[in-house]
Amino acid sequence: MSECTVLTLSEKLEKEDLHLVDVREYSEFAGGRVEGAKLLPLGEVERRHKEIDHSKPIYVMCRSGNRSAKAQKKLHDLGFENVFNVKGGFNAWKEEGLPFEKDEKAPWDLERQVRFVAGLFILTGFLLSLIVHPYLIGISVFIGAGLVFSAATNTCTMGMILSKMPWNRAPVACETETAKT
Q1: Residue 155 exposure: Cα atoms within 13 Å on the Cβ side
Q2: 141-179 burial by CB neighbour count: b if 16+ within 10 A, else e?
Q3: Are the C-beta atoms of residues 33 and 90 closer than 8 Å to each other?
Q4: CB 33 within 8 A of CB 100
Q5: What is the mean pLDDT of the chain?
Q6: Are 62 and 41 in contact (CB under 8 A)?
Q7: pTM score, whole prediction
Q8: pLDDT tens column, 95-120
Q9: How far, in Å, CA of 69 to CA of 89, rounded?
Q10: At CA 140, angle to CA 134 and CA 143, rounded to 5?
Q11: Sheet holding 2-4: strands in order across?
């Protein structure tokens, strides 16, 4: 499978007609993206792949390069031939000091939301155990165990739930515009 660096992508964006697909979730995309990138979250690639022009080279980007590698494989399986994974993803793009755009009122990224909600549940469980009943410390224990499980399995149920919340969904106008291109 083909890869390119963010510096190579930056050069190609200036000279070539290509399709840049960002496979992160809306909250990440809204928080910072390469100008001209089209949002197509990884979980929607199979359903929305017809929105991508087969005739242009396709560069796939995510936060670090992991999800975009999965998207690259999915696109290859769907018949796309000229697909490149952007190594290092948007993190590498920012580290190189390359220009990017973001929404003024972008939601927090999912990782930050998970830390906030988990901390809030732990603090609430602790306070309720002091004020209402000692057994309510179980709330804190449950969330702590969930965080350990999440790290051990490299999954995040809380993140998956939070990603479905209304503030983490692309506005209808954004989804419609993405569908047009």
Answers
A1: 6
A2: eebeeebeebeeeeebebbeebbeeeebebeeeeeeebe
A3: yes
A4: yes
A5: 89
A6: no
A7: 0.73
A8: 999 999 988 888 888 888 999 999 99
A9: 10
A10: 150
A11: 2-4, 83-86, 58-61, 19-22, 38-39
The beta strand positions in 11-135, using DSSP E, are 19-22, 38-39, 58-61, 83-86
In this model, does residue 178 exceed pLDDT 80?
Answer: no
According to the model, what pLDDT value does residue 181 have? 42
Give the max Cα distance, the chain: 66
Bridge partners of residue 84, in order along the sequence: 2, 59
The question of whether 174 is a catalytic residue gets the answer: no
Summarize the confidence of residues 17-30 as an average pLDDT.
91
CA distances from 10 to 135, 159, 177 (A): 56, 31, 23
Categorise residue 154: left if φ over 0, alpha if ψ from -120 to 50, beta otherwise.
left
- Catalytic position from the list 4, 62, 156, 174: 62
pLDDT exceeds cutoff 80 at 94? yes
Reported residue count of the chain is: 181
Task: Give the tokens for residue 83.
Answer: 């697909």
Tokens of 152: 């051990």
Beta-strand pair 58-61/19-22: parallel
- Nearest Cα neighbor of 118 from 78, 159, 83 is 159
